[in-house]
Specification:
Blueprint: H1 3-16, H2 25-30, H3 41-54, E1 70-73, E2 78-81, E3 87-94, E4 106-113, E5 117-128, E6 131-140, E7 148-151, E8 154-157, H4 158-161, H5 173-177, E9 184-193, E10 203-211, E11 224-227, H6 229-238, H7 245-252
Parallel strand pairs: 5-10
Antiparallel strand pairs: 1-2, 3-4, 5-6, 5-8, 6-7, 6-11, 9-10
Amino acid sequence: MKYSELFAQYSNSLKSLGLTVDRFTEFKFEALWDFSPEGALEAITEWYRNHVENSTMSARLIPLSECRQWHFDSDSGSFCHDSGEFFRVEAYRISGTGSREVDSGWDQPFLTQVGHDGGILGLLRKRFDGIPYYLIEAKEEPGNYNIVQISPTVQATYSNLKRAHKGKQTHYSDLFLNPHEHPVSVLFDQWTSEDGGRLFNKRNRSMLLEYDESVELELVSNRFRWVTLYQLKQLIRDGDAMVAPHIRGILSAL
């Protein structure tokens, strides 16, 4: 039986029980079973491990004073990028902490995103033969556990999107920056918070777009792969820190 027929049966069963059927119902249905005719979970795990093993990125601890294109700003007392973009390292004195472990307050550094709005965390959905898939990336970040993590289609700060680093444009970013110019529909678009213990007032724009099933979309490299929602949730549950927190955050809203 086709995916669409199975989903119709599922929806009708919910309605017969007096349960709500809304725009989030299909996401729950997708997570029940792996409807993909190919691309078993083992193949996705192997694809991920392959990128981990072939990664050439490394991170070596150096003194802050040797960090190129970063400097201490004497006026603000913070550590900044020469472009004025990305983030700053700032110190704050915390008080009124009666509800916490240290009720007398404390001092600590924070990472403060320039403008506070971090960037876009975007996940792209597309149907193949009616079955929804999600476009993920085996993304390298120097601070990641294992360097490589399974990440959303787009995971970029506004500084990156403005190319303040003078590097390449983030792949697929224009779909999320200008969705009205592309064959996509917006399923979810909301500001979501970040960790307030080390990031000061930071939030990200989390987005889920659906790409027109009838329009072909080229994968720009083998770092990108289509997976089902069931597969993604299995990787979160069973994988060893393989899935990045940003993609977990998007899925939690579905």
